[in-house]
Amino acid sequence: MSEAAVPHDTTPGRVGPITDATVAGWMARQRWYAAKGLDPQLRLIARVDVPLGDVLISTRFVIDDAPSEPVLYQVPLTQRTAPIPGLEHALVASDGRRWLYDGPHDTAYARWLLDAMSEAAVIDGSDAVIAGRNLVAPGELTDARVLRGEQSNTSIICDVQDGPVDQVIVKVFRVLHHGDNPDVTTQAALSTGGSRRVPASFGSLRGTWPDVGRLEGTAHGHLAFAQEFLPGLEDAWRVALRAASEGVSFADRARELGLAVAEVHRVLAEQLPTRQANDAVIDEVVASMRTRLETAARDVPAIARHAEAIRSIQERTRSLVWPVFQRIHGDLHLGQALDAPGRGWVLLDFEGEPLRPMPERSRPDVTLRDVAGMLRSFDYVAGALAHADPPVQTGSWAHDARHAFVDGYIEGIGVDVRAQRALLDAFELDKAVYEAVYESRNRPDWLEIPVRAVERLVARSAM
């Protein structure tokens, strides 16, 4: 969550008539435009305009038909009656009378966002509605700037005063999906539940827009989310990597991380719906594991050799006692935790698996999936160092960190997950199978890291 010094597109907008083609050409140059290399085919399906003195805040809902699967974008713009010095890089178009800017770069847009959330405003537009939700007033905006380097979203760093923090980060979602964003709802639930294991949530913005593909004719989802900004902090991956490379035990920090994850799981179970495990939901999880295995067995010969044993492990989980299903992180690893001095580990990015549809990411799941994800991440620290130049051998570092993490998690959650070892192993095995596919396609030299985990877990199941 620190500001990255990554260049962004500084190509100015076109000076001339403001047309759909002008906006389309501008969109095609942006980092968040998904259909790179294609000519945008845009359809404006709705808009919400808010006049504020000499500036017009315009939120446009635009479908791009260029890709095989149409993509819905949120395009926030500000329209000015005079050029704004310093915003040349964010100019979308100008006809000499109006200057159209990319909204997140305009301080007026950032101020409107925070106000709409704080006031829980409901704004009707042309076929769309925007509604703000307030949790805690963040304070008065004094300055704002865009966080550079992001790909799919745009985040605005807001300096504020007379509030509980000095800086707020507002994430503006460029690509929209039907359904609540779990990153918003999960972190808001944790903040409401009093947990300091996530950045404090301040509010959000939701939209409703036309969708002819749905029976009700509309769709809804999150447009933006405001939370505490924690700049300049190291993530647990970097902290762990440095410790392992220096031969320093990570056991104490891993135990603290286990406690932090357990606290997050406890609060989520209190704040959000849970459901009992039954044959139907277990079948769904096992089927998902089986799909990933079949892909890996087809693409990775080292996994294919163990495919039958893995299928057997997956099948045996049906006869085990499963815990209650609840909201979880969904994509937990060391890179998702920040080391906050005086506060301990703070977890980030609760969006779940990026490839899953939005509604699925909010479904209750098994907490052991998060535990397994973190266990795999400790293995990856040792694996990454083994592939360094020169290689660094870490001995029992990963084993000790894994053991300490589970100790902390058990202490914090009040349940002995080691008694659920067979089920935990199945989830860790599922994660390693997924990793094997990724490494075979992107980093073949690292393939042995997940393959060794598969071999270890298969061998243990045979004991």
Would you mind describing this structure in some detail?
With 463 residues, this protein is an alpha+beta fold. It has 13 helices and 15 strands. The strands form 3 sheets. It has a 7-stranded antiparallel beta sheet with strand order 7-8-12-13-11-10-9. The radius of gyration is 24 Å and the shape is globular. Mean pLDDT is 93; it is low at 1-11.
In short:
Helix content is 38%, strand content 22%. It has 13 helices and 15 strands.
Structural class of the secondary elements? alpha+beta
Low-confidence stretches: 1-11
Shape: globular
CATH topology of the largest domain: Aminoglycoside 3'-phosphotransferase, Chain: A, domain 2
Number of strands: 15
Q: What top-tier CATH class of the largest domain fits best?
A: Alpha Beta
State the end-to-end CA separation.
44 Å
From the coordinates shown, what is the CATH architecture of the largest domain?
Alpha-Beta Complex
- What count of domains describes the coordinates? 2
Q: Helix amount, in percent?
A: 25-40%
Helix/strand layout:
Layout: E1 14-15, H1 20-28, E2 42-52, E3 55-64, E4 71-80, E5 91-94, E6 99-102, H2 107-118, E7 122-124, E8 129-134, E9 140-146, E10 153-161, E11 167-173, H3 182-192, E12 201-210, E13 218-228, H4 236-245, H5 251-271, H6 279-299, H7 301-304, H8 307-316, E14 337-340, E15 344-347, H9 358-361, H10 367-386, H11 397-413, H12 421-442, H13 448-461
Parallel strand pairs: 1-5
Antiparallel strand pairs: 2-3, 3-4, 4-6, 5-6, 7-8, 8-12, 9-10, 10-11, 11-13, 12-13, 14-15
Helix pairs in contact: 3-5, 4-10, 5-11, 6-8, 6-12, 10-11, 10-12, 12-13
